[in-house]
Amino acid sequence: MTDPTGHAFPSDAFPAIVAHRGASSSRPENTIPSFEEAVRLGAGIVEFDVRLSRDGVAVVMHDPTVDRTTEGTGAVHELTASELSSLNAGTETEPTPVPTLAEVLACVSGRAAIAVEIKNIPGEPAFEAVREPIVEAVHAELERFEGAVLELRQRLGQGPARQARPGNRLGEGGLGAFE
């Protein structure tokens, strides 16, 4: 199959199964159990939402407040990562904390691709149009994670670590950004 520009897709690229907020029909959305279940069910891509905590940690949460998905109340950007992780985003019988981006990356690494929806929405209290610290935090976490994975692969003798081409940031240029 080719796209309109003539680029070929791998034969197994379609249909792409995307788990929106994980397996959110059977597990609490945007939680580690939801992502684990999505991978178990065969999702090739796990989609989730990321917001910034008061102390600058990228956390996985769809809504601007924790009210709907946890037993807590308040705006995500007004709570620290520690406060958020102490909230139950699961059920009474299967409690689970609000995960950080780092925890989700560790959970799905090597098992599914990710689709990260960065939440910086005009009209919401935490919106920042100019600097967008949430974008900076997500990029930093992805770069930290990618570096750790490549270093581990090299230590395990699974080939040389791929190096980012000069001038490329993770996420820019897709897989072609690496040699």
Q: Overall 3D geometry?
A: globular
Provide the CATH top-level class. Alpha Beta
What name does the CATH topology carry? TIM Barrel
**Largest beta-sheet details:** 4 strands, mixed
CATH architecture: Alpha-Beta Barrel
> Which residues form runs of ≥5 with pLDDT under 50?
160-179
> Count the helices. How many?
4
Rg, nearest Å: 18 Å
Give the amount of beta strand, in percent.
Answer: 5-15%
What's the count of strands? 4
State the end-to-end CA separation.
25 Å
Which structural class do the helices and strands define?
A: alpha/beta
Mean pLDDT: 84
How many domains is the backbone divided into? Answer: 1
SSE layout and pairing:
Blueprint: E1 18-20, H1 32-40, E2 45-52, E3 58-60, H2 81-85, H3 101-108, E4 113-118, H4 133-155
Helix pairs in contact: 1-3, 3-4
Commentary on this structure:
- The protein is an alpha/beta fold.
- Helix 3 (101-108) runs parallel beside helix 4 (133-155).
- The two termini are 25 Å apart.
- The radius of gyration is 18 Å and the shape is globular.
- The chain has four helices and four strands; from the N terminus they run βαββααβα.
- It has helices spanning 32-40, 81-85, 101-108, 133-155; strands spanning 18-20, 45-52, 58-60, 113-118.
